[in-house]
UniProtKB/TrEMBL annotation:
<feature type="binding site">
    <location>
        <position position="485"/>
    </location>
    <ligand>
        <name>GMP</name>
    </ligand>
</feature>
<keyword id="KW-0436">Ligase</keyword>
<dbReference type="GO" id="GO:0170057">
    <property type="term" value="F:RNA ligase (GTP) activity"/>
</dbReference>
<feature type="binding site">
    <location>
        <position position="239"/>
    </location>
    <ligand>
        <name>Mn(2+) 2</name>
    </ligand>
</feature>
<comment type="function">
    <text>Essential for tRNA splicing and maturation. Acts by directly joining spliced tRNA halves to mature-sized tRNAs. Joins RNA with 2',3'-cyclic-phosphate or 3'-phosphate ends to RNA with 5'-hydroxy ends.</text>
</comment>
<feature type="active site" description="GMP-histidine intermediate">
    <location>
        <position position="408"/>
    </location>
</feature>
<feature type="binding site">
    <location>
        <position position="333"/>
    </location>
    <ligand>
        <name>Mn(2+) 2</name>
    </ligand>
</feature>
<dbReference type="GO" id="GO:0006388">
    <property type="term" value="P:tRNA splicing, via endonucleolytic cleavage and ligation"/>
</dbReference>
<dbReference type="InterPro" id="IPR036025">
    <property type="entry name" value="RtcB-like_sf"/>
</dbReference>
<keyword id="KW-0342">GTP-binding</keyword>
<comment type="subunit">
    <text>Monomer.</text>
</comment>
<feature type="binding site">
    <location>
        <position position="389"/>
    </location>
    <ligand>
        <name>GMP</name>
    </ligand>
</feature>
<protein>
    <recommendedName>
        <fullName>tRNA-splicing ligase RtcB</fullName>
        <ecNumber>6.5.1.-</ecNumber>
    </recommendedName>
</protein>
<feature type="binding site">
    <location>
        <position position="208"/>
    </location>
    <ligand>
        <name>Mn(2+) 1</name>
    </ligand>
</feature>
<keyword id="KW-0547">Nucleotide-binding</keyword>
<dbReference type="Pfam" id="PF01139">
    <property type="entry name" value="RtcB"/>
</dbReference>
<comment type="similarity">
    <text>Belongs to the RtcB family.</text>
</comment>
Length: 486
């Protein structure tokens, strides 16, 4: 089959796993969907394809807008979407970054084996839930004031290091060493700062979680060895973002764009794509505010990791260093970065928007931490709490195909409202424990229902497509042991 059509959007097959929506009408560039046949069926179920077409109308959009294998409908710009706009003549779009700026994941490796945990799962999940703040509203590891928030926004993980919440190794194994130099705390509103000051070191709610996992499979032993992964080892995965501060920042700039650049907005098919022209004062201010929120999110995950180390110390009676609890990597999912990419044989500076997509730079790129530069950047792709997650490494084809990007997770199949109608949280929790030995603790049964395994796509299929496309190479698989949620 060479063409497919979903809800009036026609796609042409370019090659295996690559589908193109040809340029037509007001589209500035074509759009591409990277998915297997099975995943394409799911992507075509909602408004993802129309949103992807809409995204091609953003000023300065380059080459093509791309949807990753885990893509699904979002606000304006699809989740799993990547769009690169010219940094001089294009735009930057808060809508193409998302409300949870630098929502991302970090994985901490350990020297513990699954045997070390067996029989202590209940104790561990209770201790983690009691000590890692989660849920809506305030409460964090650090009860900060405005000065604290200002320092975090400006300095990122450097602040955590100076305050004793991080060690130098943590910075060396974080994307951008946990610091965006373009951060401008003054561009973040007081309302956003006030929302953020009591949430530093908290998971929040929704699909955010902390999960203790065991490594079940290794696919590339040399790369896994470089990452410090081997079968049966315990790892900890943390998924959260910039909390209320990031949400408020996105909202503030969307409203400002409506007032200051209504002419640009009126030319776009969806106001949720709201963008500021590159070079404008508003574009520079948003970029500074976004980078500051990125710094905040990295510190947020670092504080959760710091508290997790303390919990493990109390449960197992050993120092975290003795248990080898070091950061493997931290990757951002909702972000726009100025990056230089080859476009039709010419090096161009672009705003690369990744909304629910992971940077996936291959070996040799200077942006990859020194520890991984010879093998490629680690990529962490969470599945659902009843399925495996994966560690990949940046694939050689990613630079040409996706502006150095790949998927960020399994991708939702079902709305939260539908999930609560189809699943009962306590039943899901009991089945996970009795059938799969997965211990889950959450603020409410509704949260568990919203995140039930059946709500998500097949993460194995998402990773297979990424691996076969060469944009993210499969390295290892992990499986849940304990999970806490807001």
């Amino acid at each position: 089959m060479t063409t497919r059509e979903f809800q009036g959007v026609e796609l042409e097959r370019v090659r295996e796993h690559v589908w193109e929506i040809p340029r037509e009408g007001d589209m500035r560039v074509p759009a591409r969907v990277l998915a297997s046949e099975a995943l394409l069926e799911r992507i075509g179920d909602d408004k993802t394809l129309q949103q992807l077409k809409n995204a091609t109308q953003l000023p300065g959009m380059t080459k093509y807008a791309v949807c990753m294998p885990d893509g699904h409908q979002g606000y304006g710009f699809p989740v799993g979407g990547v769009g690169a706009t010219d940094a001089e003549d294009g735009c930057i779009s808060p809508g193409a970054v998302g409300y949870d700026i630098n929502c991302g994941v970090r994985m901490m490796k350990t020297s513990l084996s699954y045997d070390d945990l067996q029989g202590r799962e209940e104790e561990l999940v209770e201790a983690l839930f009691a000590n890692i703040p989660s849920g809506l509203g305030g409460g964090g590891v650090v009860e900060g004031d405005v000065d604290t928030v200002e320092a975090v926004l400006e300095r990122g993980m450097d602040w955590a290091l100076e305050e004793g919440y991080a060690v130098r190794d943590d910075l060396e194994h974080c994307e951008d060493e946990g610091f965006r130099p373009d951060a401008d705390p003054d561009a973040v509103t007081q309302k956003a700062k006030d929302r953020g000051k009591n949430q530093l070191g908290s998971l929040g709610s929704g699909n955010h979680f902390l999960e203790v996992q065991r490594v079940t499979d290794v696919y590339r032993e040399d790369v896994a060895d470089s990452f410090g992964l081997e079968p049966d080892r315990i790892v900890v995965l943390i998924h959260c973002g910039s909390r209320g501060l990031g949400h408020q920042t996105c909202n503030d700039y969307l409203r400002r764009i409506e007032k200051e650049h209504g002419d640009l907005l009126s030319d776009l098919p969806d106001k949720e794509l709201a963008a500021a022209p590159a070079g404008s004062d508003l574009a520079e201010e948003y970029y500074g505010a976004m980078c500051a929120a990125i710094n905040y999110a990295w510190v947020n995950r670092q504080l959760i990791m710091h508290r997790t180390r303390r919990v493990f110390e109390r449960v197992f009676g050993r120092d975290w260093e003795e248990m080898g609890m070091y950061l493997l990597y931290d990757v951002a999912h909702n972000i726009a970065k100025k990056e230089v990419h080859d476009v039709d044989g010419e090096e161009k500076e672009l705003y690369v928007h990744r909304k629910g997509a992971t940077r996936a730079f291959p070996a040799g790129r200077p942006e990859v931490p020194k520890a991984y530069r010879d093998v490629g950047q680690p990529i962490i792709i969470p599945g659902s709490m009843g399925a495996g997650s994966y560690v990949l490494r940046g694939g050689e084809a990613s630079m040409a195909e996706t502006f150095g990007s790949t998927a960020h997770g399994a991708g939702r199949l079902m709305s939260r409202t539908q999930a609560k109608q189809d699943y009962w949280g306590e039943t899901v929790q009991k089945e996970l424990k009795t059938q799969q030995k997965i211990y889950v603790k959450a603020q409410s049964g509704a949260t568990i229902a919203e995140e039930a395994p059946g709500v998500y796509k097949d993460v194995d299929e998402v990773v297979r497509a990424s691996d076969e496309l060469g944009i993210g190479d499969k390295v290892a698989r992990t499986f849940p042991v304990c999970n806490i949620k807001g």
